[in-house]
Design brief:
Blueprint lengths: L2 E2 L5 H6 L13 H4 L1 H14 L3 E3 L7 H4 L3 H15 L5 E6 L15 H14 L4 E7 L2 H12 L4 E6 L10 H13 L4 E8 L4 H8 L5 E6 L15 H14 L4 E4 L5 H11 L8
Parallel strand pairs: 1-8, 2-3, 3-4, 4-5, 5-6, 6-7, 7-8
């Protein structure tokens, strides 16, 4: 059975003309364009996703100030109100610093992960998703804090847009550590779709429940970043290889969108329940 995740919020907001300035990035849309966040959630649900990630990738005190807690709660409300009641809401928890700079991972990350995990758990998410972690140690700390809330926890590690931050073997070893800390599902995300297969194969060898949600890679690959064209079907073709390798959870990351999820659903013959 295949579970179909949604796709990105950040790059989809940009594609729809919504400003996402740093440091808050996509989180600013919770203040300026909450209706657009809801619209994107609805689009992914219509495309076939049954697990929807909250727009909390950057709802932290350092990025959103004193409003961070209310924004995180609002993100959960928007997601919950925008999708069918039997769909699952995944609370997104990201690296404290930069998802492509493991060298910037702070030594005090655990306390900040604990704070967001508890807010999301109290807001009623169905699972917690520690995503886009290139630093294994920080990912394990985040998982431990999420597991401590009593909410099911998934972890997604990344080797980055150039697939050079973690080798497949190192990513699999990190996933194993996260599973030992309590993660129930391990994934690879935000690696170019064209380079994701080796990471999927490495996760398969761990014997754990696993999956993948890749980014579109460089624009010249023609997998995503622009509307229309063959990109969604190309992504679906690659994802079917991950399925054949045993991946049970599939979605999209940066540069993909609702059309990619719809292509996945069609290619994988996903039923409305989100499972084959």
């Amino acid at each position: 059975m295949i579970t179909l995740l949604d796709g990105p919020l950040g790059s989809e907001l940009l594609a729809r003309g919504v400003p996402t300035p740093l440091p808050g990035w996509s989180a600013h849309a919770l203040e300026t364009h909450p209706h657009m966040v809801a619209e994107i959630h609805r689009a992914y649900a219509a495309a076939g996703s049954t697990v929807h990630t909250t727009n909390t990738f950057r709802t932290r005190p350092a990025t959103m100030g004193t409003a961070w807690r209310a924004l995180a709660q609002r993100a959960v409300e928007i997601a919950r109100d925008s999708v069918p009641g039997d769909h699952r809401i995944a609370g997104s928890i990201a690296p404290i610093a930069d998802c492509y700079r493991p060298d910037l991972s702070p030594p005090d990350a655990r306390k900040q992960h604990r704070a967001l995990a508890r807010v999301l758990a109290d807001a009623g998410v169905d699972l917690l998703l520690c995503e886009t972690f290139p630093h294994v140690g920080e990912s394990v700390a985040a998982v431990e804090e999420c597991v401590a809330t009593g909410v099911e926890t998934w972890v997604a590690l990344t080797a980055g847009p150039d697939a050079n931050l973690l080798t497949p073997e190192a990513l699999a070893a990190g996933a194993q550590r996260a599973a030992e800390a309590g993660a129930s599902t391990v994934l690879v995300n935000c690696v170019p779709a064209s380079q994701t297969q080796s990471y999927v194969d490495a996760l398969r060898d761990t014997g754990l429940p696993f999956g993948a949600y890749a980014n579109a890679g460089h624009p010249h690959e023609g997998v995503g970043w622009t509307a229309g064209g063959p990109g969604p079907s190309r992504y679906a073709d690659l994802a079917q290889q991950w399925i054949r390798s045993g991946a049970g959870v599939i979605g999209g990351c940066c540069g993909t969108g609702p059309d990619h999820i719809a292509a996945l659903r069609e290619a994988l013959q996903i039923y409305p329940s989100g499972q084959t």
